[in-house]
Amino acid sequence: MVAAVVRGGRTVWHGSRTSVEGEMPDDRVQYRIGSITKTFTAVLVLRLRDEGLLDLGDPLEKHLPGTGAGEATIAQLLAHTAGLAAESPAPWWERTPGSLRPELADVLGERPLLHPVGRRHHYSNPGYTLLGALVEKLRGAPWEEVLRQEVLEPLGLDRTSVRPRSPHAGGWAVHPWADVLLAEPAEDLGRMAPAGQLWSTTGDLARFAAFLTHGDDRVLSAESVREMRVPAAPAESADVVDGATYGLGLQVQSQGGRLVVGHSGSLPGFLANLTIAVEDDVAAVVLTNCTSGPLLGSVGADLVRIVAEAEPRFPEPWRPLPQVDEAVLELAGPWYWGTHAFALRLTADGGVSLGPLAGGGRRSRFRANDDGTWTGLEGYYAGELLRAVRRPDGTVSHLDLGSFVFTRQPYDEHAPVPGGVDPEGWRGIG
């Protein structure tokens, strides 16, 4: 087993355990990472979206016709809500050569849809095979070539590959009732590769974790990476207690009150886990070469928790804004939605934030638009439009947020409060 901890975008700890005397693996030894491959495939799809070659709401049929699952949208495939089966038809695809499934029809089978499209989260390996085929169709090149050129090389992931490169670990099964080993086959998955083919190292996955935290404009912007981390699928009933759900190519979970994202992976002979606590800017990578046994998700979560609790993140040093728009500065300060007190603040990225002055409640950061409005980035106000409404003389009347009116005073009689304000005004009980 090998593990690494990432903090502030760099590896700060690496450790390993081995049963082979004198061969302690380092951060360049490859292990198979299974379904963490899906996150790489999702990055390629988001790149296509950002270039305007597709929309996440497009049905698959628009770009990849004739699959039999074309009514599902690209976003639904990314979030495992397309209704597809979890696995491809027999034989077990993880332990047999991909040459047995040369076409998409061989991967999907005669009944690709098990559930109504968009109704529930049902994890699907064939769904990511379709996304890999979509990448190939729109790029006109094999999935592995596109991945290398657009993600691996820009991020410097030179030890991540479709096929193993020395030094790499061999995959083993450990007998459940005896301390003996059985070698596992390492098959080329063929069409199923975009769902689980990759080999990687703790060193490379540490860099990938930093990318998934902060973004990299050579691959995906911070905004697009943030979008991947937003829950996009309903939690299954069995997951509700754990607060587990799925974004766009990333698992999202609440663990001990801490929101973590990432992905797990498994193939015969290998287990892998990538856990990221974005708010703490701490991530953990754990890899091992056995089929079952270690609960790597728990190990990764523990590594993140230990670092985040023992060495809390230092706040960023205060710095004044590089520049400020006087018209926006005028909006800063307290506002009232009815009698609820909110505060609007300017943010370092040129946007604003709006949230309750005290306690819990609806809050969001807002991205500045070219026309002087702002778009909500999270929570209840995600995607909602915030604008300052001005009177004919240029003074600010109120804020409009998705039809909600925010005023400088509670139920300001000089603002167009929906339903009007009682002309008798505020009064006591007499």
Automatic annotation (TrEMBL):
<dbReference type="InterPro" id="IPR001466">
    <property type="entry name" value="Beta-lactam-related"/>
</dbReference>
<dbReference type="InterPro" id="IPR056008">
    <property type="entry name" value="DUF7586"/>
</dbReference>
<feature type="domain" description="DUF7586">
    <location>
        <begin position="324"/>
        <end position="408"/>
    </location>
</feature>
<protein>
    <submittedName>
        <fullName>Serine hydrolase</fullName>
    </submittedName>
</protein>
<dbReference type="Pfam" id="PF00144">
    <property type="entry name" value="Beta-lactamase"/>
</dbReference>
<feature type="domain" description="Beta-lactamase-related">
    <location>
        <begin position="1"/>
        <end position="306"/>
    </location>
</feature>
<dbReference type="GO" id="GO:0016787">
    <property type="term" value="F:hydrolase activity"/>
</dbReference>
<dbReference type="InterPro" id="IPR012338">
    <property type="entry name" value="Beta-lactam/transpept-like"/>
</dbReference>
<dbReference type="InterPro" id="IPR050491">
    <property type="entry name" value="AmpC-like"/>
</dbReference>
<dbReference type="Pfam" id="PF24491">
    <property type="entry name" value="DUF7586"/>
</dbReference>
<keyword id="KW-0378">Hydrolase</keyword>
